[in-house]
Amino acid sequence: MLRRPLVALLALTSTLLAFPALTAEQTKATPTAKEILAKSTPAEWRKPDPQNLIYMQLPQGRVVIELAPDFTPLHAANIRTLVREHYFDGLAIIRVQDNFVTQWGDPNDDDNGDKSKIRSLGKASKTLPPEYTRPIDPKLAWTALPDGDVYAPEVGFSEGFPAARDPASGQEWLTHCYGAVGVARDVDPQTGSGSSLYAVIGQAPRRLDRNLAIAGRVLEGMPLLSGLPRGAEPMGFYTKPAQRITIGSVRLAADIPAKDRPSIEVLRTDSPTFATLIDAKRNGRNAFYALPAGKVDLCSIDVPVREPTPAIKTTH
Amino acid sequence: MLRRPLVALLALTSTLLAFPALTAEQTKATPTAKEILAKSTPAEWRKPDPQNLIYMQLPQGRVVIELAPDFTPLHAANIRTLVREHYFDGLAIIRVQDNFVTQWGDPNDDDNGDKSKIRSLGKASKTLPPEYTRPIDPKLAWTALPDGDVYAPEVGFSEGFPAARDPASGQEWLTHCYGAVGVARDVDPQTGSGSSLYAVIGQAPRRLDRNLAIAGRVLEGMPLLSGLPRGAEPMGFYTKPAQRITIGSVRLAADIPAKDRPSIEVLRTDSPTFATLIDAKRNGRNAFYALPAGKVDLCSIDVPVREPTPAIKTTH
Question: Where does the record place the PPIase cyclophilin-type domain (chains A, B) (predicted)?
Fold first, then answer.
């Protein structure tokens, strides 16, 4: 028996097997994501600004994060300052809470840490205004998702990021979908700085929306953050310091010679190909998935990322 | 700076710090989940039927699964038969696909396997009818979640499981939320047997609803399935057989002497305490989460599980 069937929708073979209760229309397989992407044009892909691209080197590989200065400009600037100071080098992933987040930062900057060894933030700010929402700006691209949402009046994509809007308040904000990179903080909303960040690794914790700042999104390397042993302590903290994963280095793409940068490209979320992908996920069917969902949830939509030329191999 | 703030909503300290823009009402913290559960009554907890409880022993610990015979009776019976034959003992976790599923079964029962070594299913059926949906039955407990849903006309909990309904068709079905255990199959809907199962480890892949049978739900041990290295091959298959995680044993609680069984209890999803928990998640606020979400998504609700007496330690 074939045991490879549970593929993501439309990524399957389009081989059709006849079985009862399917009409001719139903057996016409929707193109796969790969097939749809193969027809994309170069103009539909964007190269993220090197000022917004961060490479975090972990023992098992590289995580690439795109900052979102349209939504959290002060945090983006502060994180750039921290990265340029090599603040994160040698710090660690300090907790992995199942179905929630993986968080990294200074292990000593914690209840159980050695306060005398807390690393200085250098020229970076220790605290920042929250930046949880921003006024809706017609100049920012907005691609509405008409499928509805449990949490927000309107959802869609803004400049590549899953986002939500409330026309009544005139505000928009990034959403805590899988791969969102948020800013850890103390109880006071003013206490985030970007020196400790978390990535969403489970079911979208949308209740965090508008209660925490989202600094960006993981473009590559999510499995390096999600596929880690969960910490046994409350909130997923590791019991022993040796269980933490040490961060080799964190660098800004802009500080790496252009020839050494991976040529990462992200599909534009206002492109026709992205719309086709969403519709294939919403209404697509094939021999394996005979019944289309009819709708698609904001956080179940992946924004495709590619590297047209081979990535550099960073050693650590 | 305290670095333990990013706790799940309401699991936080209720210590209140005063800061601007909060009214007296806003600073009244909602009770935490722990506080709410502490007030539950014994009658609000149920002991799953030992005929429906499965223990899967992995190298790192034990996974407990509750079967859902109300929704997938033929699959439950077949899985019981397989378990009683010790079919799963020595088989393996064969793939971990990021933000999707962890799947286990016979590594040889796959495209790249050695067909001559496929393990016999013994007296179990090799194929079963799909059991993707079932007629709505007023005799089954149904606790509606009024918050809305992107995918289904109605959602809620049925006998402990997150589920969806369509009054128009008169059908109901279990939903692919985090921890759902589904039945892998070939392209033909009739080809599932329960000999290969998957658990959802990421954003709920609700497009799988009504396209695959859900055999049950993981009650304990999700981190043992979600915190695994992702396979590097397409669909998360492991590149080398040595990377697979071997299953020590799979047993039915009913086949274990009662005194040796963990005394697992699950909060009734039709209990007042469960309703209070949901509302705390929906409308709760505290010093950290100043803005309530106002709504809650079906798949973001955890059904509490407890072990009033210590678990047995199974060696393998």
Answer: 59-252
- How many Å separate Cα A254 from the centre of its chain? 20
Q: Tokens for B218, please give them.
A: 């993981």
Does a structural domain hold residue A24? Answer: no
Interface pTM, i.e. ipTM: 0.91
What are the CA-CA distances from residue A24 to residues A16, A18, A286 (Å)?
Answer: 11, 10, 11
Q: Show the tokens assigned to B185.
A: 């199959």
DSSP SS3 for A216: strand
Q: Which residue of B has its CA nearest to A11?
A: B235
Nearest by Cα to A53 from A248, A256, A312, A213:
A256
CB contact under 8 A, B203 and A227: no
Joined together, the tokens standing for residue B236 give 């998360």
Inside any domain, residue B297: no
For the segment A255-307, what is each residue's pLDDT rounded down to a tens digit?
A: 999 988 888 999 999 999 999 999 999 999 999 999 999 999 999 999 999 99
A290 vs B211: CA distance, rounded Å? 7
Expressed as residue numbers, the domain containing B153 is 49-260
In a domain, residue B215? The reply is yes
A10: nearest CA in chain B? B207
Cβ-Cβ contacts under 8 Å, A196 against chain B: 3
| Coil, helix or strand at residue B79 | helix
Chain B residue closest in CA terms to A284 = B207
**Pair B59, B246: CB distance under 8 Å:** yes
d(CA A198, CA A217): 10
Cβ contact B288–A149 (<8 Å)? no
Reduced to 3 states, what is the DSSP secondary structure of residue B58? Answer: strand
Q: What is the pLDDT of residues A152-192, one digit of tens each?
A: 999 999 999 999 999 999 999 999 999 999 999 999 999 99
Confidence of residue A243 (pLDDT cuts 50, 70, 90): very high
SS3 B266: strand
A6 and B228 within 8 Å at the Cβ level: the answer is no
Phi and psi dihedrals of A82, rounded to 5? -60, -45
B202/A294 CB distance under 8 A: no
CA distance A92 to chain B (A): 13
Measured at the alpha carbon of residue A212, what is the angle toward residues A210 and A217, in degrees to the nearest 5?
100
B9: left (phi over 0), alpha (psi -120 to 50) or beta: beta
DSSP calls for B15-34: -----TT--TTTTSPPPPHH
CA distance B312 to A178: 35
Laid out side by side, the sheet with B161-166 consists of B134-135, B171-174, B161-166, B154-158, B143-145
How many structural domains are present in chain A? 1
**CA triplet B273, B226, A221: central angle to 5 degrees?**
125
- Tokens 């802009």 belong to A254
Determine, for residues A206 and B94 on separate chains, whether the beta-carbon distance falls below 8 Å. Answer: no
Q: How many CB pairs under 8 A join A and B?
A: 211
What's the one-letter identity of residue B128?
A: L
The CATH number covering residue A76 comes to: 2.40.100.10
Kindly report the length of chain A: 316
Q: What angle do CA B1, B2, B5 make, to 5 degrees?
A: 135
Q: What is the DSSP secondary-structure string of B128-184? A: ------EE--TTS--EEETT--SS-SEEEEETTEEEEEETTTTEEEE---TTEEEE-
Q: Which residue has the tokens 């929704």?
A: B71
